[in-house]
Amino acid sequence: MGWTPGVPEPEDPLRWGDKFPKGAAENLRNTQLRRNLRYATHKIRDKRNDRVAEMPDWEELRDAASAIKHQTMSNLPELLEEMERNVQARGGIVHWARDAKEANEIIHQILVEKQVDEVVKVKSMVTQEIGMNKYLADRGIKAWETDLAEMIVQLSEDMPSHIVVPAIHRNRAEIRAIFANRMDDAPADLSTDPRTLAMAARAHLRKKFLSAKVAISGSNMMIAESGTLTVFESEGNGRMCLTLPETLISVVGIEKMVPTFKDAEVFAQLLPRSATGERMNPYTTFWTGVTEGDGPQEFHLVLLDNGRSKALADEIGREALHCIRCGACMNVCPVYEHVGGHAYGSVYPGPIGAILTPQLTDSMDRHDPNSALPFASSLCGACYEACPVKIDIPTNLVRLRQRVTDANRGGIPDMWDVAMAATSPVMASGKAFDAAGRAAKLGRIVAGKKQRIGALPYPASMWTGARDIPAPPAQNFRQWWKKHEEEK
């Protein structure tokens, strides 16, 4: 099901609740959620299209990015070692974490050594993936989200529903209510004006920035040749976290890598346009190790595997690791637009999440909620057209569907198995298929003037209970072709 605000965070951020169909059905009944999602996704989509239209070499940039990612994945072990050497050469400390447990233990140990009970955070999907905030909270350390959308999610005890815009499912009135009820220092006259809400958040966070001794971040991409990390953001909170505290801990998935600065320049053009519809992010921060007298004087890099090495060895998983977390696929996806991110039951929702989450969690068993994610798509192809690194999401979803089906063959047949067995003789015979096509014209009578069939008796009601069937054409293709040949 979708996430219920106010309940404790899930133990596994990559797997919570029921399967996608149940979560989607629940969210489809939430008309306010659907209005919020439609407004926000269309707004971001339109901005992105405007910025892309300005780029005569957009397709060449996509090709270049895809090639760079292919090269990176092909040489990832060597690049990671190069990254480690260069970070250490500049005074940084590198930690390797096999899974979420190890990553959280490393982070917690550093914070215990620093004797702090609170930290500030840059928006980071990978810390969401490992459930870091909950892990630290259970041990008496508060991690303050400083990104506006992440702060909204945290204050409402919610979960993110989008990779780039975690609170995309909220509107201004809801945000105003969250601030008024959950923010200790919220102004008494708080309105729904965006500037007023932003200023309230800024005042709330300012003292956190100035007092925090440790900050935690992720990174949009690491640059192996120099040991450099980057954060692209639009609010300035990231810059505050990356420069003011004495100690900085960056937790980064091992796939978030490019070989050279020249490669990073390609993504610097693609990422902001794809993610937020901006020509460039207002705040783009690069840092390399420790610089005396400038910024944090202690830097820790935690390189996280958490299933990525296994995904790297898989053809589909390797392509999924090309993802730069721009969220463009979600903004064009008709399924995501209608059901939102919580229906996917993972911190990585939408089309790319439907590939990435099963790869990271090895979820092919039909009883695992994540096994339903490859089927959470209409396969319209919009996600592939929007992806700045040209991940072929539709094709990979079809291939994952086959894997799920193959992994669950045998046992007691379900209704889907029975239906496929019943139709296979018709599909295997040209004469039988032709007869079925002729019989289908009877559906025009059932459809009537509405030209659609809205309800059929069981077991066909399993389909019509959720969608209509268009009225069959008056003339099917075989009939048209036969007439066409006769008229030659």
Task: Describe how the helices and strands are arranged.
Layout: H1 20-28, H2 31-53, H3 58-74, H4 76-89, E1 93-97, H5 100-114, E2 118-121, H6 125-129, H7 132-137, E3 142-145, H8 148-155, H9 172-182, H10 194-211, E4 214-217, E5 221-223, E6 228-233, H11 237-243, E7 247-253, E8 257-258, H12 261-276, E9 283-288, E10 298-304, H13 308-312, H14 315-320, H15 328-332, H16 334-339, H17 350-361, H18 382-386, H19 393-407, H20 415-428, H21 430-440, H22 443-447, E11 452-453, H23 461-464, E12 469-470, H24 477-486
Parallel strand pairs: 1-10, 2-3, 2-4, 4-7, 5-8, 7-10
Antiparallel strand pairs: 5-6, 6-9, 11-12
Would you kindly provide a brief summary of this structure?
This protein has 488 residues and is of the alpha/beta class.
- The CATH topology of the largest domain corresponds to Rossmann fold
- The CATH level-2 architecture of the largest domain is identified as 3-Layer(aba) Sandwich
Measured by DSSP, the beta-strand proportion falls in 5-15%
Please, how many domains? Answer: 2
Notes on the protein architecture:
- Pfam families: Fer4_8 (PF13183), LUD_dom (PF02589).
- It comes from Boudabousia tangfeifanii.
- One of its GO terms (molecular function) is metal ion binding.
- Residues 314-344 form the 4Fe-4S ferredoxin-type domain.
- Keywords: 4Fe-4S, Electron transport, Iron, Iron-sulfur, Metal-binding, Repeat, Transport.
- It is a single chain.
- This protein starts with 19 loop residues before the first helix and ends with a helix.
- The strands form three sheets. A six-stranded parallel beta sheet has the order 1-10-7-4-2-3, with helices on both faces. A four-stranded mixed beta sheet has the order 8-5-6-9, with helices on both faces. Strands 11-12 form a two-stranded antiparallel sheet.
- It has helices spanning 20-28, 31-53, 58-74, 76-89, 100-114, 125-129, 132-137, 148-155, 172-182, 194-211, 237-243, 261-276, 308-312, 315-320, 328-332, 334-339, 350-361, 382-386, 393-407, 415-428, 430-440, 443-447, 461-464, 477-486; strands at 93-97, 118-121, 142-145, 214-217, 221-223, 228-233, 247-253, 257-258, 283-288, 298-304, 452-453, 469-470.
- A hairpin with a 4-residue loop joins strand 5 and strand 6.
- The protein has two domains: 20-309, NagB/RpiA/CoA transferase-like (Rossmann fold); 415-486, no CATH class.
- With 488 residues, it is of the alpha/beta class.
- Helix content is 51%, strand content 11%.
- The chain is built from 24 helices and twelve strands.
